[in-house]
User: Fold this.
Amino acid sequence: MKQNVNKVWMNSQKSTLSRILYGTAIVMAVMAVALLIDNVYIFKTTIDQYVAQGYPIEMLLESLVPSQLLPAVFESIAVYGGIGVILFVLGKINQNQVNIMDLIINDGKEANFAFIDGFAQENKETDESIDEQDADKQNGDEHNTDENIASPDDSVEKE
Assistant:
């Protein structure tokens, strides 16, 4: 019973860091959008103030877009968006590391994940079928899977 409680506690702790990283990535993405909207609003307000003073709008746009609007837009997207993307990727990496450690610790018998295309994915097999496979291997009932694999020469008909 105590072993089951420890396993449940470990499973709940495994993805906590990933959840924190995902949450922080979402917050950073929202901050990037908010800062982008704020910068556009500040640019519009600046243009309105200069127009009210009598400056021509073409001259203002020509001079203020490259000096005020573009750096502000790129800064908000690059800094906050980039940090958000990095945090999201770190969350994915952490989750894969947790899955791999689960495989290593459980030696594949009770693991809920299997390697597919280099990533640890959820395994659909039950623990019973894995135990049956291990029992077959120990009893010598292991089937040679190399016989079932067709060689490239088998697909080409010989004439």
Observations:
- The longest strand covers residues 113-116.
- The mean pLDDT is 75.
